[in-house]
Design the sequence.
């Protein structure tokens, strides 16, 4: 009986079997990555190569023109700034508010705890698109349509249930014995919070905020509905980036890359937490 | 990973004794604790009520009214319409077509993606380490790509004139030059399904492969020694242990795919033709495209009701997890 060092059992496993498995795995990986690769190289091709009936699988003439033209578009930079401002506001608010509720659910057993868990889980699954009409009317009545704050408020609600649920998981991970020991030593509840729970939840707060960032950054239909074309985020900008003569594929792909970079980088940084966060927190951007 | 507990299949946790309840020791403080806990939860609850509860209520009210552009701009109370919007929806063959299409797509796409995800997860346990790493990296990049960017990528791949898909098919001897993939709805839906599968597989495969590491190797080895073939081991050992996780990811896939919006929206350039409408795009188009706000609301209400069954299922699973710690 053989076992690989990585713990995969190999009982009754033949070499040919492994060969076919590896071949399938490589073909699968290549098929998955190809569209990403195609976006990348299109962004670096000059226009006449993009608009060629025989596509090239590696750019003949490497160019940065597409990036220049995407960056040079009137609304690109403002939309990037809008995206950053809205995301920062929503994530910061969700962290502060959500942390308190997570603390309550994870550390207190009280009457109504189940009800709060139920509310948090349920609203996580409310299709937001369905609420766009009343949200639009609400924001309109307080003059918040076409503002960044209005969109940030909606994003806050979008992020809040996930934030509460994930932070709850992180706080539950801290042994209660630590709290109790500190309290026996004379700490108050508030001190336990400041000196023990908050510092130990640090990595959880980072992971949660990064995930919140990804979600808010990726959203486009809410902002597209609530705000004028001049007040969009990068994703909504991407949707609008069509010319009269059809799609300018090169600049569009370049724009897609630029707007994805923060998401991809952040995602890869916290990818270890993300599968757990999703099956526990269950939100897809 | 402090919160890894969440994705561990439930049977592993079952033997655990009921969690210690420190409340008993500090019963005298119970009442004050309860107050503090509610105070801590208050901001979250208030925001959820104001930004979700109230809109939900408004949506229901709106679905019994008739709000058009005029009322939207003047701020006047829209006239009451009773159940007119619902009658209109339920007697409309277009609407039933949308419902059937959404449901059909959900069933097909979820079945395909869960099966594919499970298959890839199992494959990842079988390949050598380097190949596994490569599969992982490829999936990570796909997963990280924003949905809208992924949809634009597929729009570019399937472009009728300059798309690489037509080029490759033509090179293979089929005449696909200048072929438009969205004229025939079956082909168009195949592209949409491919996009949804491609974007969805990473989450499914990676979560399930994490779940597979929880399957005790000793059990599988013992079964193999006892002469079980791989299929038998899968059915009698792996799948039962994986079941809770499988249920969660399947339910999530149902919820996501039932709400299909971005892919259609981007691939059809913001104007999905009738054959590409799903409940989400239909409601949106009716409300914001045609200013039938009340009709859009009625469709949203029906959508939420249809989803409720699935949601109950998901919430029960999650609730069990939340109760354990």
Sequence:
């Amino acid at each position: 009986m053989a076992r690989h060092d990585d713990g995969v059992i190999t009982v009754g496993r033949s070499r040919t079997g492994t060969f076919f498995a590896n071949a399938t795995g490589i073909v699968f990986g290549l098929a998955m990555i190809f569209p990403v690769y195609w976006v990348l190289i299109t962004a670096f091709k000059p226009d006449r190569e993009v608009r060629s009936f025989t596509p090239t699988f590696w750019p003949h003439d490497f160019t940065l023109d597409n990036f220049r033209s995407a960056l040079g578009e009137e609304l690109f930079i403002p939309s990037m700034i809008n995206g950053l401002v809205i995301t920062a506001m929503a994530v910061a608010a969700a962290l502060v508010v959500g942390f308190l509720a997570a603390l309550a659910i994870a550390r207190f057993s009280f009457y109504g705890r189940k009800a709060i868990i139920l509310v948090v889980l349920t609203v996580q699954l409310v299709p937001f698109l369905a609420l766009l009409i009343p949200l639009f009317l609400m924001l309109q009545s307080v003059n918040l349509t076409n503002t960044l704050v209005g969109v940030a408020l909606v994003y806050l609600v979008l992020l809040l249930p996930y934030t509460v649920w994930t932070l709850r998981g992180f706080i539950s991970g801290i042994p209660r014995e630590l709290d109790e020991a500190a309290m026996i030593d004379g700490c108050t509840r508030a001190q336990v919070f400041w000196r023990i729970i908050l510092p130990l939840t640090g990595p959880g707060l980072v992971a949660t905020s990064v995930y919140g960032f990804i979600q808010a950054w990726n959203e486009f239909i809410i902002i597209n509905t609530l705000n004028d074309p001049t007040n969009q985020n990068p994703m909504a900008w991407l949707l609008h980036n069509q010319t009269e003569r059809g799609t300018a594929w090169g600049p569009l792909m370049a724009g897609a890359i630029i707007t994805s970079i923060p998401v991809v980088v952040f995602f890869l940084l916290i990818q270890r937490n993300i599968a757990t966060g999703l099956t526990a927190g269950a939100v897809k951007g | 990973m402090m919160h890894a507990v969440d994705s561990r299949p439930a049977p592993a946790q079952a033997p655990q004794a009921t969690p210690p309840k420190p409340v008993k020791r500090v019963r005298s403080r119970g009442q004050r604790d309860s107050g503090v806990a509610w105070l801590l939860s208050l901001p979250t609850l208030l925001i959820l009520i104001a930004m979700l509860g109230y809109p939900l209520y408004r949506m229901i009210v709106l679905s019994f009214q008739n709000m058009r552009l005029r009322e939207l701009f003047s701020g006047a109370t829209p006239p009451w319409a009773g159940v007119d919007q619902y009658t209109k929806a339920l007697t409309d063959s277009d609407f039933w077509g949308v419902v059937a299409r959404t449901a059909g797509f959900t069933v097909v796409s979820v079945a395909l993606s869960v099966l594919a995800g499970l298959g890839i997860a199992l494959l990842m346990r079988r390949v050598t380490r380097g190949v596994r790493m490569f599969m992982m990296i490829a999936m990570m990049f796909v997963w990280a790509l924003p949905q809208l960017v992924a949809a634009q990528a597929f729009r570019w791949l399937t472009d009728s004139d300059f798309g690489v898909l037509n080029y490759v098919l033509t090179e293979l001897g089929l005449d696909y030059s200048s072929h438009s993939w969205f004229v025939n709805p079956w082909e168009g839906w195949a592209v949409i399904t491919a996009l949804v599968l491609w974007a969805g597989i990473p989450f499914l495969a990676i979560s399930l492969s994490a779940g597979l590491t929880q399957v005790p190797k000793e059990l599988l080895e013992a079964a193999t020694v006892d002469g079980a073939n791989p299929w038998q081991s899968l059915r009698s050992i792996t799948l039962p242990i994986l079941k809770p996780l499988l249920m969660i990811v399947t339910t999530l896939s149902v919820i996501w795919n039932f709400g299909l919006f971005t892919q259609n929206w981007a691939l059809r350039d913001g104007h999905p033709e009738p054959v590409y409408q799903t409940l989400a795009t239909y409601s949106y188009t009716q409300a914001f495209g045609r200013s039938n706000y009340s009709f859009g609301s009625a469709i949203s209400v029906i959508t939420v009701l249809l989803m409720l069954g699935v949601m109950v299922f998901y919430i029960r699973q999650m609730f069990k997890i939340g109760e354990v710690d």
